[in-house]
Amino acid sequence: MPADNIRLAARWLRDVCHRRITAGDAAAAAAMSGSSFSREFPQEMGVLPLDYLVDLRLQTACRLLLETDSPIDQVARRAGMSSGAHLARNFRTRLKLLPSEYRAYHRDGPSRRSRMISAPALVLRIDLHSDRLDRQLYWKVRLISYADDDGGG
């Protein structure tokens, strides 16, 4: 069944998302032709294969940003991105913040000399039972620090 093959490919993508992957690799994991895979994957998963892969890589990068002190370039490579700039571009496009901002906010938390503003961000959740990627837009609270040299006023 094509749906079962797509779910197998989605699990495979999750397992190998940190590697360099071609469309042909993903289609082969589903035991489908490239054109069938490209047509069937969005119907079953709700997103294009490339978007699914990028979302998986962003999830991996988010985890690494919080669990390690690795530089952004190294986090990017371990998550399957080509460079820190590529990771930053995807973060900015999909999450509306930079990897360093994500790390600072979620790891360090707000400081007493900060103010909060709202900015849109994309939350990604994978339902492990259905392997379907769900997206939900919400208002993400971002931390913006006051300058320490503001003269106290």
Q: What secondary-structure arrangement, pairings included, does this model have?
A:
Blueprint (H helix, E strand, L loop, with lengths): L1 H15 L6 H7 L4 H12 L3 H19 L4 H8 L4 H12 L3 H10 L5 E14 L4 E14 L8
Helix pairs in contact: 1-2, 1-3, 2-3, 4-5, 4-7, 5-6
Notable characteristics:
153 residues; alpha+beta; Arc Repressor Mutant, subunit A; two-stranded antiparallel ribbon; 54% helix; 18% strand; elongated; disordered C terminus
Description:
With 153 residues, this protein is an alpha+beta fold. The protein has a single domain, classed as Homeodomain-like (Arc Repressor Mutant, subunit A, Orthogonal Bundle), CATH 1.10.10.60. Helix content is 54%, strand content 18%. It contains seven helices and two strands. A two-stranded antiparallel ribbon has the order 1-2. The longest helix is centred in the middle third of the chain and has 19 residues, at 49-67. The chain is elongated.
CATH superfamily: Homeodomain-like
Unreliably modeled segments = 111-153
Large-scale geometry: elongated
Sequence of strands across the biggest β-sheet = 1-2
Beta strand %: 15-25%
CATH topology label: Arc Repressor Mutant, subunit A
Structural class: alpha+beta
* Count of structural domains: 1
Percent helix, as a range, is 40-55%
Total strands: the figure is: 2
The helix-strand sequence is: HHHHHHHEE
Could you provide a short overview of the structure?
The protein contains 7 helices and 2 strands. The chain has helices at 2-16, 23-29, 34-45, 49-67, 72-79, 84-95, 99-108, and strands at 114-127, 132-145. Strands 1-2 form a two-stranded antiparallel sheet.
